[in-house]
Structure formats: structure tokens, C-alpha cells
Specification:
This protein is α/β, with parallel strands linked by helices and about 750 residues long. Helices cover about 30% and strands about 20% of the residues. It has an eight-stranded parallel β-sheet with strand order 1-8-7-6-5-4-3-2, with helices on one face. Strands 11, 18, 19, 20, 23, 24 and 25 form a seven-stranded antiparallel β-sheet that branches. The longest helix is centred in the middle third of the chain and has 28 residues. The protein is globular and about 70 Å long.
Length: about 750
Amino acid sequence: MLMKTRTPQAKPYTHYSGLRLACLAATAFLAPSLSAADPYEDYVRNSTDFASVKQDKAWAAKAFPSWLFMPWTYQWRIGYTPESARWSKDHGYNGAFIDRGEIEAEGRATGRLDWINENGFRFYMDHTGGKGLLHLWDGDQLKPHLDELHGTGVRPVPLNDATRDKVRELMRKNIGAVKSSPQRAAYALDDEPSWGHFVHPTMWRVSDDDAPFAAWMKQVYGPNPPSRKGWVSYEDLRKSLPEWSVRDFDASPLMDQWTYNDATWANFIGGLVQDANILDPATPCGFVGGQSPSAFGGYDYARLMRKVQFIESYNMGSSQAIIRSFNPGNAVPAVTSLFHKSVDDTVWQTWYYLAHGNRGHIGWVEGWFDGKTPAAWHDAVAPAFVEAGKKIGPLMAGAEWIHDGVAVYYSHPSIQLGWILDAQAHGKTWINRNNDERLASAVHVRHAWENMLRDSGIQYNHISYVDVIQKGISSQYKVLILPACLCLSDAEARQIKAFADAGGTVIADYLPGLWDQHGKGRPEGGVLDTLFGVKHDSSIRAADVFNGAALWVEVDQDVNFSWKTHKEFLTKNNTSLRDAGGFHKAVRSMPVDHTQAAGKGRAVLMNLSPQWYNAYRVEGPAPAGKRQVFMRHLAESGVKPRVRIVGQEEAVHGYEVTYWRKPAGAAGEAGKGKERTLFFVGYNPEITGDSLGGGNSDGLKTASLQIDLEFSQPMEDVRNERTNEALGRGNKFKVAWKQNECVVLSCAGAP
């Protein structure tokens, strides 16, 4: 399930004759320079590193029209018969999958494809590009290769023309075997692909040719980039971290390597997606088994989401919310894995992910059957799957996400630098660091912001550094949140300042832009210091922040490697200062919650980490109320919830409401030729999972309640889409809610 690259002369996305695709070189540009004075801005605006493959909503909908449950038939015991088809349909399993291993030697799909076609199951093909090229090793096969992973050599399967040719040949065979089927929904190049091994700490280079990296450096830095003599490892800078001040800090040799790997990987994936489109122009292509945003493995979703037409990603490190945000118009079908743990959890997963825009599930078929007898739980979860597939899923066809004017910034360089700072606690054992989605400061800070917003009745979008540099920050947003945005380029800072000047509110938690996009400390303090009206001293060292010790971060993640609760994670061996509001201070000598006018807008530097909210919210609504330290700034900027549950504060704590615009004329019952707005009321528990899958709930509520929903303004022609009950006009409605399901209402018009 994992893959070095030789890239010839730079070219944009172009098709060669036959099945050849021009190499997607990291140095290629789409247009003349727009900002020669800032090479990095020029690079982000114009490089094919950020060019998108075809992502057409109507085109994808023809192949993947609605909500699908596609069992990954690892232990499918009941065969492919009329009886098994009937059982599947009765239980809501309306999709299917085919693996590349099922293609016979003569290039024809096995009998399962006949069964799929006869019964009208939409399917995706897994491992369309084989296995062992994009995903390198499985499970216990990893151990013999750890020295390679942690060394500074070349990826054992380099991303080069030879590897691309091998993958293409596999794609030609596999796609050719199934493309006659009218039921194909998507192709997955591989499962859990990575330029390393999942998101394990990996130091190698993906390319076996020095020239592309040198050329890439010139595009990113300009004609005189820093000299790089050899590939470096984390070990080369780890010991300097406690002593470096911000002005001395230089992680750029390592971060530039990782960014180059990310760029080369994303381009490689994008090229293969376009190859698939040549082989079968009617079917989206992407991958499954996506990982959390990370410094490793190619999971910079700002790049990656431009290179795929279909994706399944495990819900770790906010990956699902990030994918939704970087998927304009929901044009790329996104699904999640479903691992059955309990009836209540499986029903919750169905509704939760549907409410967040997912187009279905890939179900892991393990323990589904006792011999050929289906387990009893199938009957219990079937109503949820059937309703999702036949009623609410089609209702969501063509729907578009609605936010409340809040943007949460996605800075991948900050994720990279965050790893560098986090891993310091491990010393020489950094090579054993896994489970970054459970440990990383970037993950916990982002998660705290998301939960504070959702618990306040506010929905948001993540916005990426790429979109901000290319297009600025849209006036549809009132508030921009910078979560642990340690690394910001001058180009990003200009756009952020412009947003505030035009009337927006910018809120940063801590240390915003003290490093540039390469991980190099800024000698004059933070790039946004003027905006915030503060001065970060560039002599700041690790001892000046959080714990006041040798670590730059809030939590000693080595001591807390196997934490069980957020409170334990934040208190064990922690000497950070908590301010009166209950959150850890970042720069110990600086004040907290500093606000100043900025143009027509405002700028707020909290100098606090929001991580404690992850602990407060599980303690109940009263401790969770401490979020007002952060949230009051949104309310003062005019951000207010559209709908809230009135009363029953203890019982309903943790709920959220998602909103979707159903355009006029869109498919599905709700449209009726006129625009409508859909509202999902559901429960937002903690999410569990790991690199092999997940997205299950932790702390799920399952009570059946009667709730009063109060809207901020009167709604017209309100309808309960699950019960088909017409609720009329008004701003307050009483409805029944089982907490591991969703209430689904719609109203006439835009919100």
C-alpha cells in the first residue's frame, strides 16, 4: 500500500500520444511570473505543483451519483448469488468493490463483475495501480526497512519514469478489464499510499535525480537559493533546538526536502490520475486509505486535493473536514472507511459522515458472517444504510456546504515545523514516533478550534495557504483563525493584512509567523507583529515559551506518548502557565488576549493555546463554557449561530448543526425545482482511529430526546425530511432526536 522521481524538462499537464503523459515536473509553470519580487509567491501562483486535474461536478456525478456503501469483501462468506444480492440490497449495501488481484490472467474480471452488473451495484476498483509501488510494505514487513526509512538515501521505489511506466501498465490491464461495466464509480490507485510508510518519520529523498531538486529550489527561492550539500536528517538539527533562539532557528534544510517530496508525490499522483482518464474518460480516479495531514508521506492536502477525483481518507487529524473544505462544490466524491464496533456507533457513522458531505462508506468485511450466516447486527443497522442510500443520500446530491463566515487557516509548513518541535522530546528515539494524529500539537490545536466552533453552533471552512496566496481571502468570511500558524510567508502575510484592512477579524492563538515558510526564524520578530500591535522578541528560546524548559511545545509528548485522556495529556509533567481563563500561555513574558484595530477590521493575538478545550468539553457544558475566552471575539465580529437547541443543556452538550445549500434544479426530492437549505442536527463526539483505519466515536450519546430548535430568523416551508412532515413557517420547531442519528430538516430558499 506505498513509492523516487526522475523528472525531465519541466512541462505543464499535457498528454503525449497514446497513453503517455508529460512528466509533472515540480519546476513547471503555467503562466508568466506575476510577482518576480517574491519568488515563493510566484511559485505558488504559477507552478504546476498546484495545478488541478479535471474536477468537474457534473462529470463525477454521472459515475458516482449518490451515497454508496461499498463492502471491501475481505471475508465475504456468502458468495455472489441472487440470494446474496438480495440480502445486500435489503441491508443497504448498494455498492461493491473489485480488487486488482481478481483480474484473471487473460485480462477479464472474475465472475463478481457479472454479479455487480446484473444487480446494479456501483463499484470502485482498489489497487488499480498495483501494490508495492505507491504503498511499499505491509505490517511486519516494515521492520527490516527502518534504517532505509530513517536514512538520507533514496526511496527504494523511486518516483521516476520507470516507476510511472510500471504503474501505467498495471492500470492499463486493470482498467481494461472492467471499463466495459456501466457500474464503475471510481478507481483507487492504491490503498494507504505514501512517499514513505504511512506517515512514519521518513528522511529519504523520493527522487533518484539531483537536477529536479536543484531546479525546484530556484523556483521557490529565486535564482540564488541556499546551497544544499547532501540530504539531511532530523538528527542533524535535533540537538540545536533547545539552544536556538528564533533568530538563529533554521529548519529549512529539512523542511525544503519534505516539501520537495510532497510536491513530487502530488504531481506523480496527479499524472497517474490523468493517465486513468485517458484509459477511461468517464470514471474518476484517486486513492483510498488517506492519512492525517502530516510532515511525512505526501499528505499536504492543499496540494493533494488538487490531484485527485476520488478519495477515501481515515478521519484523523481533521482530515475529513480539511478534505471537505478543499473540495469546492463537493465535486470530488469523498467517502470514509467504516469499521463496525457496535450498532450504535455504526449508525452514528452513517449519519455523521453523511451530514458532513461524505458520499458513502467503504466497509471492512471482517467478522460480518458466522460461516455463511450474517451477524445479527446487520438487521439493526440496515435501516440507517437503506435510508442513507435511498432517501437522504440522493437528497444531498448536488448540495453545497454552508459556513458561518469563519475560515480556519491550513498552513502545511507549520505542520512540518510543529513536528520538528514536538519530536524533540523523544531524543534519539524520534525514529519510533508514530500515531502523530494522537500526539501532534498542530492536530490538538486545530481540533480544539474546531470543537469550540461546533459547540458554539458555528460552522467553518479550512482555507489553505495555496488558495490564500493565489486568490486572497474571500469577503464571504468575517473571521480568519490562525491555529498554531508558526510558519507564514511574506505573501501570506500580505493577504492576511489585506483581509483585516478590508474589515475582517484575524485571530491567532500563539507564535504566528515567527518563522517563514521554510522553517527559518525571522530576525525581526513575527511577520504579523505589526498587524497585532505586538513585538515578539527574536531572542525567544524554548525556555521562554510554555513549560519554561528545554521544549518549544506545550506537552512533553514522549512522557505522554500513551495518553488516555486529554486532561492527562495536558497535565502530566507539565509546568506551563495557565492564565485566569484556564488556557496555557505561549510566550510566558507577554500578555494574553491583545486586540487592536487593523484597517477596517481587528486583529487579536491570544498568546494562548486552545488545547485545554479538548479536556474541558468532555467534562460537560459548564467547563466547556471556558471557550468564551476565544469565542467572544467571533461574536463581536458578527458571527452568530443560525440555529440552536433551546434548553436541556447537559443532555444535548456536544451537538452540532451542519448546513447545505440545495441549488434550484438540483437532483433529489428536496430541490423540487427551487432552492432549499438542508439542516442536519447530530452529535459530535471524539473520533478514534489509526493509520490502518477508523473514524469511530468515543463517548457517543444515544438517548432519544424531544428538542426545541430555535432559528435566528423565521424559516419558510420547513419540512422534516426523514418523517416527511410539513412543519410550516416559523423560527422554533419541536422535533424528535435520537442522538446517534441526525434530525434532517429543510426550508425554502437560501439561509
